[in-house]
């Protein structure tokens, strides 16, 4: 199932965008996938609600295989791991929780 909004659909939608922030904590978190939207070419924005209540936007990229989010339906529970890299903290692994 591909429930990813295009950039145009996302821009025209009434989804609240300023309620989401980038996660800067290293670690593994469980979350619900709220929605997904295309970003620039080769990138996908994944909007998550972490179990601690935070609303997080996770950028994922083609060279990561989008961490599998293209195949994970909105509303699914996921476990997402953030790793420290040279330029900050980024999502490095995601898995669907059955």
Task: Give a written overview of the molecule.
- The protein is globular and about 35 Å long.
- Helices cover 6% and strands 48% of the residues.
- Strands 1, 2, 3, 4, 5 and 6 form a six-stranded mixed β-sheet that branches.
- The protein starts with a strand and ends with a strand.
- The protein is mainly β and 98 residues long.
- It has one helix and six strands, in the order βαβββββ.
Summarize the structure.
The chain has 98 residues and is mainly β. It has one helix at 7-12, and strands spanning 4-5, 27-38, 43-50, 55-61, 77-85, 88-96. The chain contains one helix and six strands; from the N terminus they run E-H-E-E-E-E-E.
Kindly name the structural category: mainly beta
Helicity level: under 10%
Number of helices: 1
Radius of gyration: 13 Å
For this entry, give a set of tags.
about 100 residues; mainly beta; 6-stranded mixed β-sheet
Present the secondary structure layout.
Elements lengths: L3 E2 L1 H6 L14 E12 L4 E8 L4 E7 L15 E9 L2 E9 L2
């Amino acid at each position: 199932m591909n429930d990813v909004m295009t950039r145009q659909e996302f821009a025209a939608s009434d989804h609240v965008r300023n309620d989401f922030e980038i996660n800067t904590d290293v670690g593994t978190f469980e979350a619900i996938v709220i929605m997904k939207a295309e970003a620039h070419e080769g990138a996908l924005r994944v909007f998550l609600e972490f179990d601690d209540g935070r609303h997080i936007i996770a950028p994922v990229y083609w060279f990561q295989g989008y961490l599998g989010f293209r195949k994970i339906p909105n509303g699914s529970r996921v476990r997402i791991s953030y790793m420290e890299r040279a330029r900050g903290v980024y999502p490095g692994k995601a898995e669907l929780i059955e």
